[in-house]
Design a protein that fits this description.
The protein is α/β, with parallel strands linked by helices. It is built from 14 helices and nine strands. The chain starts with a helix and ends with a helix. The chain binds alpha-D-galactopyranose. Alpha-D-galactopyranose (GLA) binds near residues 169, 213, 244, 275 and 347.
């Protein structure tokens, strides 16, 4: 973004803030929104934390506009990539904390609640982690030791600085089967227990989370509940379930998502929406063959300039409905984190094809809040308690 545009946006944001203060005063609300700057962080104050995933460029804090935008709107941060195994532990015995340290510095400098993401995940895993020098799977004992070293080293380094860890990410398939990752193949499902135990040993005060996508699916929901109960029965700490919340215009349904919130909460753990975004583009099956034909490119990337008004309205309506659902369950939901700051930053622009233009986040490419946020402030004066 160029500087003139940034300044214009800051002025526009200030104007928007002032306008909302007037709207809320005229509502006569007991929320006293007039005293507060209008943003999701303040709006959700007392309900849940509002977080954002930062990429390493943002966490380097070289751009004042980014730092201000994050501070104005969020009170929790998570690193998008730099704490993943392939980055932080690229070779056996060799750690690289450069980017993770920078992220933690950002979090401390800006007094943010901080989430560590993620300790054990089959994807973005350093290639050496589960194999020996000949490329064969390591033994169960070796893998346990590697997991222990990795988790102890990373968690200890940020002890007292990271408030909660995504300990295990994506261990369960949609139909309720265990994901056949290397961790599962070598150690069985017990690898999950080991991971939580090692994390707790390294920082007994840190919260520990299980995190997964597609949590609206019945099979994954039921298996997750079973897994939580198993950990609890063995006295292993688990504080919350992270529902990633990568959504589209046609999935998940509000009611399936709500059923899962209730199911997880019924086990006694908290619920977090950990990677919230909503693609505005047509849903493409993961298995889709990404053809290079012009027609197919158009199908995949239908709005390369701007989102049509009708789709924009649909997107904002759904985002508002989900946010309202989160507020409704704020007795059990303790954090809602967006997976990226602005539309420009989202991984969705490059998945499943490089160069798609998507519009999935809370702020647009000009750093403007999306309309659903403003609608929430208006309706929130009356009916969100
Ligand atoms: C998963 C991971 C995230 C991120 C997203 C998409 O949800 O948990 O770290 O990689 O995929 O990029």
């Amino acid at each position: 973004m160029n500087t003139i545009k940034s300044k214009n946006n800051i002025m526009k944001n200030t104007l928007v803030t002032a306008l909302f203060a007037i709207v809320c005063v005229s509502c006569g609300s007991s929320h006293e929104m007039s005293d507060k700057e209008n943003n999701l962080k303040n709006f959700a104050d007392g309900k849940f934390l509002v977080g954002v995933a930062l990429n390493s460029h943002q966490a380097a804090a070289n751009d004042e506009n980014i730092v201000n935008l994050v501070n104005r709107n969020f009170n929790s941060v998570v690193a998008e990539n730099c704490m993943k195994c392939e980055v932080i532990h690229p070779e056996e015995g060799k750690y690289d904390f450069t980017l993770a340290d920078e992220f933690i510095k950002f979090a401390e400098d800006n007094d943010m609640h901080t989430v560590g993401h993620c300790l054990i995940w089959h994807s973005q895993l350093a290639p050496w982690f589960c194999i020996d020098e000949e490329g064969k799977d390591v033994s169960a004992d070796v893998l346990k030791q590697r997991m222990k070293d990795h988790i102890h080293t990373v968690v200890s380094r940020y002890k007292g600085k990271v408030h909660g860890w995504d300990v295990v990410n994506e261990a369960i398939e949609g139909n309720g089967d265990w994901r056949k990752s290397k961790f599962y193949e070598i150690l069985g499902p017990e690898y999950i227990e080991y991971a939580f135990r090692y994390a707790h040993e390294a920082d007994p005060d840190a919260e520990l989370y299980y995190n997964d996508y597609g949590m609206n699916e019945a099979g994954r929901r039921d298996k997750t509940v079973e897994m939580i109960k198993n950990l609890q029965s063995k006295g292993i700490r688990i504080d919350a379930v992270g529902m990633q919340g990568h959504m589209g215009l046609d999935y998940p349904s509000l009611s399936d998502f709500e059923t899962s919130i209730k199911a997880f909460a019924s086990t006694g753990v908290k619920v977090m929406i950990t990677e919230w975004d909503m693609s505005a583009l047509p849903t493409i099956n993961r298995g889709a063959n990404i053809s290079e034909t012009v027609d197919f490119q158009k199908l995949l990337n239908p709005y390369p300039v701007a989102l049509p008004d009708s789709i924009d309205a649909l997107w904002n309506k759904r985002m508002g409905e989900f946010f309202t659902l989160f507020v409704k369950h704020s007795d059990v939901i303790t954090r809602v984190t967006a997976w990226g700051l602005t539309d420009e930053d989202s991984w969705k622009n490059n998945w499943p094809m490089q160069g798609r233009k998507d519009y999935p986040l809370l702020f647009d490419r000009d750093y403007e809040p999306k309309p659903f946020i403003m609608d929430l402030f208006n309706s929130g004066c009356n009916n969100i308690n």
